[in-house]
Amino acid sequence: MPAQKGTIRYIPAELPKTSGQELSDTLVVRLNEKFPDAVKANVPFGNSFADLVIERPDKVIVAELKTGDPGLPLPSSTYPQMGLFIEQARTRYPGREIVPLVLTNYGISDADKKVLGDEGVQILDVASRSIDAIVDIVVRQIG
Question: I need a labelling partner for 77 at 20 to 30 A (CA). Which of 110, 113, 120, 135 fits?
Fold first, then answer.
C-alpha cells in the first residue's frame, strides 16, 4: 500500500544483525528472484545514488538504506536526499507512482516522521527483522 502525501507508515523494531551493504546486496538478490530484472542497485539521481530502485509498470520504489548505530538519530542528510530522489524519479518515470522508502535501524524522531511523511516517504525500521521479513514488507510495497 503506497503512502499518500502527509501520511507515514512507521514499523518499530530493534538492532539489525547485518551491515547495510550486506542488507542491500541480499535485498537485491532476493527481490530479483521475485521481480526479475526490475531491481537495480546504486541508481544515480542527480549527484547521489539511490540504494535500490524497483521498477514496475505502474510504480517505482525508490529505497534508501540507512544503517548504523541504532542509538543515533536518522542522519539529517536523509531529508534532502529523499527529496532529490523523489523529484528525479518523477521526471525519470513520468506517469508512474513513485513510492519512496527509507529502511533504517537509526532512531526515528517524531520530527523525522513528520518531515519525511509530509513528502510521502515511508519509513521501515529494519532492526532485528529477518531478511525474509524485510523482503516481504518491500514486496507488499510493490503490490
Answer: 135
Q: Which CATH number is 10-142's, of 3.30.420.40, 3.40.1350.10, 3.30.1490.20, 3.40.50.300?
A: 3.40.1350.10
**Which stretches of 1-143 are DSSP H helices?**
20-34, 78-92, 110-118, 131-142
Phi then psi for residue 119, to 5 deg, are: -95, 0
For the stretch 29-47, pLDDT in tens is 889 898 888 999 999 998 8
Instruction: Please tell me the pTM assigned to this model.
Output: 0.80
Which residues have C-beta within 8 Å of that of residue 129, sequence separation ≥ 6? 13, 16, 137
In tens, the pLDDT along 123-137 reads: 988 887 888 888 888
Beta-carbon neighbour count of residue 90 at 10 Å?
A: 14
Q: How far apart are CA 35 and CA 32, in angstroms?
A: 5
| 92: alpha, beta or left? (left if phi > 0; alpha if psi -120 to 50) | alpha
| pLDDT on residue 79 | 92
